[in-house]
Design a protein that fits this description.
The structure holds 2 protein chains of 2 kinds.
Chain A lengths: L6 H9 L6 H20 L2 H17 L10 H19 L11 H7 L3 H10 L2 H10 L3 H12 L4 H8 L3 H30 L1
Chain B lengths: L6 H13 L4 H13 L1 H19 L9 H10 L7 H4 L2 H25 L7 H10 L3 H4 L2 H32 L1
Classes of the chains: A mainly alpha, B mainly alpha.
């Protein structure tokens, strides 16, 4: 659905009582939210459910959006909180920044998925799989910067950290991603080239 | 420039160069290194490949019915985000003013009907005893208006308590 309205105009309409206008925002940000949630919960079915919750929470709290940051930045905080709450509820393991388990898990990558990656010979699938093996923070940093095309300043604001810290986090995430790709997909990269 | 040429350092400097956040001096140093240093050139090529892969990757899409599902859930919500904005505040103030004026009118009328000329220490109790409240509330229209007033008062009080409750929930 294309519309000439910007986010603020749509939000004003929704806040003014035009509930249907919210569909425009959902359409505009569904992929952004879904991708970020997927990085946290690592499962499409759960990601769909959590993404819905994110949009419902955003709707309920739309009055509190003051517009001093981008809507996507505001939405990210809801994504992060909802995703973490979901993991806590499900008692899933939350990988911390320096958790070595992430790397052990990556070493034990499901052979079926890997076979699928080789079969597809898709760079896209390979990148997504490598990102999925990263810790939550690393995966979110990569997603925000590259897929959501946020600047370092916007990333920092969304994550509630300083710009320099965001730069370090992004650098660390890229280094780990590179390492993952070299370790697990070196053959596939050669095949693709 | 006293920076070591370790692999992590090279990569960090190259990422900053690729992201376009290097200083002008650093940029020219790196450009020179890329022309002359094979290691830097190789690293730059690798990082550019990763950069290109990441930039070309697309966002994941949820199911086709996603928006509809969200809108269905939202339609069940009784409290719209800005319910108070549906109601024109001027109308509310107008109604409030009308009823306040009405009450004041009754009070003034009632007080004006009282005979204060006989107000003596012993006369006050006589007047109170003789005060016939039914004189003011015998009319059924007056009774109906008073009932409406009480109802509106209760509704306003309920709204006030709800606002307090929401505020308390937000704070907690």
């Amino acid at each position: 659905m294309s519309t000439g309205l910007n986010d603020t105009e749509i939000i004003n309409q929704v806040v003014g009582g035009n509930q249907q206008a919210y569909a425009l925002l959902v359409n505009r940000y569904q992929e952004y939210v879904f991708t970020l949630v997927l990085r946290i919960v690592k499962n499409r079915e759960d990601a769909e459910e959590v993404s819905q919750d994110v949009f419902i929470k955003a709707y309920k709290n739309l009055n509190s959006f003051r517009g001093d940051s981008k809507f996507s930045t505001w939405l990210y905080t809801i994504v992060n909180n909802t995703g973490i709450s979901f993991l806590r509820k499900r008692k899933l393991e939350i990988y911390s920044l320096d958790n070595e388990a992430v790397f052990e898990r990556a070493d034990n990558i499901d052979s079926g998925v890997r076979a699928n990656v080789i079969e597809q010979k898709s760079k896209q699938a390979m990148v997504n799989e490598a990102i999925a093996q990263l810790s939550r923070e690393d995966a979110l940093a990569i997603t925000l910067f590259y897929k959501a095309e946020q600047s370092l300043e916007e990333m920092a604001k969304a994550m509630g950290i300083e710009t320099n810290a965001a730069k370090v986090r992004l650098h660390r995430a890229r280094t780990r991603l590179k390492s993952k790709m070299e370790n697990h997909f070196s053959q596939e990269i050669k095949d693709l080239n | 420039m006293n920076r070591m040429n370790t692999t992590p350092d090279i990569e960090q400097r190259l990422w900053e160069y690729i992201d376009g956040i290097s200083t002008a001096d650093e940029k020219s140093v790196i450009e020179q290194l890329l022309k002359t240093d094979a290691e830097w050139k190789a690293k730059y090529k690798t990082l550019m490949e990763i950069q290109s892969l990441l930039k070309s990757s697309e966002l994941d899409a949820p199911s086709m019915r996603f928006t509809q599902n969200v809108m269905d859930e939202i339609s069940k919500l009784h409290i719209a985000p800005a319910a108070k904005k549906y109601i024109n505040q001027k109308i509310i103030w107008g109604i409030g003013f009308f009823f306040i004026a009405l009450i004041l009118g009754f009070l003034i009328f009632g007080l004006s009907q009282m005979d204060f000329s006989t107000a003596q220490p012993s006369g006050i109790s006589k007047e109170i005893k003789g005060f016939d409240i039914s004189r003011f509330f015998s009319n059924s229209w007056v009774n109906a208006l008073m009932m409406v007033n009480i109802l509106l008062g209760l509704i306003l009080f309920d709204n006030y308590l709800n606002t307090k409750k929401r505020k308390f929930r937000k704070e907690s």
